[in-house]
């Protein structure tokens, strides 16, 4: 018998949180906003019709923890090939309809002059020495299975393994408003910044404002008018030390963002199944980041609690580009 979300007993809410990273009722809510056209079902490459909610649950279960499709056949009552096709279609749907939420910070509804001022006040209230910092940027690396081609390109000399890199921009309200990648593991953060075009998007967001809204990154990034970083060199003065310490404390929120994505969707942390030439590795990470942002909208996040800000409403966050 095929799986149905309506058959998840209410008493098993803890199991629902483990399997799908959401309570049963919020999984239904998430489905309604992820499928604004209310199509209600998808048809896989094998010409099998699957209800939309079941397809979402299947994808959430796939990302929640490493497990072979064959191990899920008994739970879902579907063939391995059908579940694989279904999961790919759901992830493509999320990327197609909501990919703009991570592609360009200027497409994000929360990036407005009023919200930027709210963000910088929240950062300043935590003791930051910068009075106009509204977000934090950093690079994160994810291990991958060693590819047959371009092994040297994806080899990280720092981590000593093959990896891909992403560049997220974390807001104090707990959401990632832009995610660039993937990039080869051998790329430097400064090169990723240049090739991603993030700085040009920052300039677009700051144009016409009465003050410069800056972001803060680690020492690997170049110093720009809208991109600040810690003081460098060996001769740090007593005046500079408090700046580095205070800004380092607030900048750690971007690390919490990395941690939440992998903690909620541990399949991304299973190196043996991150096969660059066989799977849509970047798609999976971006979908997981989007779903992690949705999780923040529903349940909050350590980041927004730290800055005493409320996350955006799920309805407002999951707006297709055509209605923004």
Automatic annotation (TrEMBL):
The keyword DNA-binding does not apply. The keyword DNA-binding does not apply. Its cofactor is a divalent metal cation. Residues 137-293 form the DDE Tnp4 domain. Pfam families: DDE_Tnp_4. One of its GO terms (molecular function) is metal ion binding. It comes from the Eukaryota. Keywords: Metal-binding. Coiled coil: none annotated. PANTHER family: PX DOMAIN-CONTAINING PROTEIN. This is DDE Tnp4 domain-containing protein.
């Amino acid at each position: 018998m095929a799986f149905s979300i309506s058959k998840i007993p209410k008493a098993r809410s803890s199991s629902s949180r483990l399997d799908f990273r959401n309570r049963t009722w919020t999984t239904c809510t998430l489905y309604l906003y992820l499928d604004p056209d209310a199509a209600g079902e998808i048809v896989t490459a094998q010409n099998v019709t699957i209800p939309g909610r079941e397809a979402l649950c299947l994808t959430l279960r796939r990302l929640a923890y490493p497990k072979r499709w064959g191990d899920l056949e008994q739970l879902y009552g579907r063939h391995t090939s059908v579940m694989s096709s279904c999961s790919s279609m759901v992830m493509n749907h999320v990327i197609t309809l909501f990919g703009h939420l991570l592609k360009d910070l200027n497409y994000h509804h929360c990036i407005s002059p009023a919200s930027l001022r709210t963000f910088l006040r929240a950062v300043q209230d935590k003791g930051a020495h910068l009075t106009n910092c509204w977000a934090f940027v950093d690079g994160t690396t994810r291990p991958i299975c060693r590819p047959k081609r371009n092994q040297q390109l994806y080899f990280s000399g720092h981590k000593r393994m093959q990896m891909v890199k992403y560049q997220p921009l974390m807001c104090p309200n707990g959401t990632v408003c832009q995610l660039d990648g993937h990039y080869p593991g051998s790329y430097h953060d400064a090169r990723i910044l240049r090739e991603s075009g993030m700085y040009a998007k920052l300039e677009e967001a700051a144009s016409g404002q009465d003050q410069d809204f800056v972001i803060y990154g680690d020492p690997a990034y170049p110093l720009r008018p809208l991109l600040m970083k810690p003081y460098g060199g060996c001769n740090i003065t007593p005046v500079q030390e408090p700046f580095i310490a205070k800004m380092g404390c607030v900048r750690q929120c971007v690390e919490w963002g990395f941690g939440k994505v992998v903690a909620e969707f541990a399949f991304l942390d299973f190196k043996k199944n991150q096969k660059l030439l066989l799977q849509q590795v970047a798609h999976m990470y971006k979908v997981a980041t989007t779903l992690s942002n949705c999780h923040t909208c529903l349940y909050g996040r350590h980041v927004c609690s730290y800055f005493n800000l409320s996350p955006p409403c799920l309805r407002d966050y999951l707006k297709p580009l055509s209605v923004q």
